[in-house]
Amino acid sequence: MNKTLATTLSLLALSTLPVLADESGIEHGKKLHQQSCTACHGKMTGGDGSTLYTRSNRRVTSLPALNAQVRRCESNLELKWFDEDIKGVSEYLNAEYYKF
Ligand code: HEC
Asked: Is 56 exposed, middle or buried (0-12, 13-18, 19+ CB in 10 A)?
């Protein structure tokens, strides 16, 4: 490998780092939520199921309760998410819908 190529490759590797870091937050949660959560909620409420989160009699009324409910639905499904995944999905739902 010549030197220029090596430099280019290492710069490339560096420049993708912030993208990866971003992935662990809200964006990551959004993807997971789309993959695993919208279909079933959608069957209940129609559409993409998001009205479940915004209806006036929604069950979740605080951030800890949101975390707990995400975990409850996740473990019912036996998805075996990491804590970071639970956190990302909670952050996404909070930013997008609950706004606690
Ligand atoms: C197999 C069906 C199903 C799947 C899949 C599912 N859920 Fe649920 N979810 C439910 C049911 C049922 C409720 C309770 C609705 C109620 O109380 O009226 C619910 C409620 C919720 C609520 C609370 C809504 C409120 O009232 O504030 C959240 C948050 C939630 N789910 C998150 C998730 C997440 C995150 C996932 C993906 C890991 C997920 N759910 C996947 C069935 C499902």
From this structure: exposed
Residue 84 Cα, ligand 1 centroid: separation in angstroms? 19
Angle at alpha carbon of residue 21, lines to 3 and 49, rounded to 5°: 140
User: How confident is the model at residue 39, as a pLDDT?
Assistant: 94
Pocket of ligand 1 (CB under 6 A): 33, 36-37, 40-41, 52-53, 58-60, 66, 69-70, 73-74, 77, 79, 89, 93
pLDDT at position 3 over 90: no
Nearest CA to ligand 1 atom 36: 37
CB environment 76-87: b (16+ within 10 A), e (fewer) = eeeeebeeebbb
